[in-house]
Specification:
There is one protein chain. The chain contains 15 helices and no strands. The protein has 422 residues and is mostly helical. The chain has 2 domains: 12-204, MFS general substrate transporter like domains (Growth Hormone, Chain: A, Up-down Bundle), CATH 1.20.1250; 208-422, Growth Hormone, Chain: A. The radius of gyration is 21 Å and the shape is globular. The two termini are 23 Å apart.
């Protein structure tokens, strides 16, 4: 135990990585505050449909940022891109928070602010991922990534609860201003780092890679469809989960709480924190589980369970009962995600893995705008409970179909056995 902890904290002895980790810990806390504040703010000044439109615009602009990130990092460097993005987000959040406190904010204003914010988020993540390997020795990279991942999970857990409490006690604008301050702290940490130059011949032709992405993607899909149908089916599951999950968590849930609870801002923070805590527990549980014949089936069973729990949430009538259900949802969602990603990695031919992983992330981000827009319309016309029940039931039925499909079950079991073989 002591040795494992020593390995985990060893990257923090590198000055620049310690600066990155500390700055991003605060920034992740701000991101968690924003994830709570934005839906609450949109519901305060508009409807569930308006919330879906705002989040949809955010999702589309985030995808655009992802596509622009590689050329930008190649041209300007990861640290420069991250610094510029953090300065822009600090200004955006400061202005938005001030407008939220002074009044006069409309849905149109929210859209104007969320589009560049989504673009910034899309630009930031790839730059962040490309900077980390330059700050620590190669043998410490797994530990460095573990530190950063733990930071994200802990920030979601603390930030979600704090965001709801702050928004309820002092207003959503205060939460946004705190978010702006965290971006200032992140900017300071980035500026304090030493410059990490990349030799010109070591910089890949990202623009050329971007141009060839769609061609490579078509080739990959053709090969997978021809001889690796299991990967296509697993990617379809990823698409289904992301199609339903974003709208459930960020549209249906806050709309339901606004309808049923006076202090819905704090309630929303509590439920998001419960889900984040469950996700952390689920990741730890599945990480310590040895490979077995049941691992593949466990992914589908966990998916079925989270769908059923989501159907129950609207009828609990109590924040703490709903929180317990969301805790379970978080555990099961984490189990499903970890196993599904592992199955895809094992089932994919090595020469196709980079393209398949890119496709998986594109599906994850690409489904978000569709999810929030569709859920906003459902919540407005059928009511938040019905929208949540429909999505939860669809999730449960999708995983049940996979669990009871003999051919898919055999394939998944075979891949699980392959991954468990030393």
């Amino acid at each position: 135990m002591r040795s494992g902890l020593a390995n985990l904290v060893r990257p923090l002895r590198q000055r620049d990585f310690a600066l990155l980790a500390s700055g991003q810990s605060l920034s992740n806390l701000g991101d968690a505050l924003f994830e709570v504040a934005l839906p609450l703010l949109a519901l305060t000044i508009g409807s569930a449909t308006d919330l879906g439109v705002v989040l949809g615009c955010y999702g589309v602009s985030r995808i655009a940022g992802l596509l622009l990130a590689a050329p930008a990092v190649s041209r300007f460097g990861a640290r420069t891109v991250m610094t510029a993005v953090d300065v822009a987000r600090a200004l955006l959040m400061a202005v938005l928070g001030t407008m939220a406190l002074t009044g006069g904010l409309t849905v149109a204003h929210l859209i104007v602010f969320t589009i560049p914010n989504g673009l910034c988020m899309g630009l930031f993540r790839p730059a962040y991922s490309s900077l980390t390997p330059r700050l620590v020795p190669e043998e410490q990279l797994p530990s460095a990534n573990a530190v950063l991942t733990t930071s994200v999970q802990c920030a979601m857990l603390v930030g979600a609860a704090a965001g709801g409490i702050i928004a309820g006690a002092s207003g959503v604008g205060v939460a946004l201003l705190i978010n702006a301050a965290t971006f200032v702290a992140s900017t300071v940490s980035l500026v304090a780092m030493a410059r990490h130059h990349v030799p010109p011949d070591a910089v890949p032709d990202r623009t050329g890679q971007l141009r060839s992405l769609f061609s490579a993607g078509r080739t990959t899909l053709g090969a997978l469809a021809g001889g690796h149908g299991l990967v296509v089916r697993l990617l379809s599951v990823v698409a289904l989960v992301n199609l339903l999950w974003g709208g459930l968590l960020e549209v249906s849930l806050p709309s339901l709480l606004k309808r049923d609870f006076d202090n819905y801002t704090a309630a929303y923070g509590i439920l998001l924190a419960a889900s984040a805590a469950g996700a952390l527990v689920g990741a730890l549980l599945i990480g310590g589980l040895p490979g077995s014949r049941q691992t593949g089936r466990l992914a589908f069973a966990a998916g079925l369970g989270q769908g059923l729990l989501l159907v129950v949430v609207p009828w609990t009538g109590d924040v703490y009962l709903a929180g317990a259900a969301m805790l379970g949802v978080g555990v099961l969602n984490s189990v499903t995600n970890v196993i599904m990603v592992s199955l895809i990695q094992v089932a994919t031919p090595p020469d196709r893995l980079p393209h398949v992983m890119s496709l998986m992330w594109l599906l994850s981000f690409g489904m978000f705008p569709v999810s929030v827009l569709a859920t906003g319309l459902l919540a407005t016309h059928l009511g938040p409970p019905a929208a949540m029940v429909v999505a939860g039931a669809a999730l449960a039925l999708g995983f049940l179909a996979g669990l009871t499909n003999p051919a898919l079950a055999r394939s998944v079991t075979a891949i699980a056995e392959q991954s468990a073989t030393p």
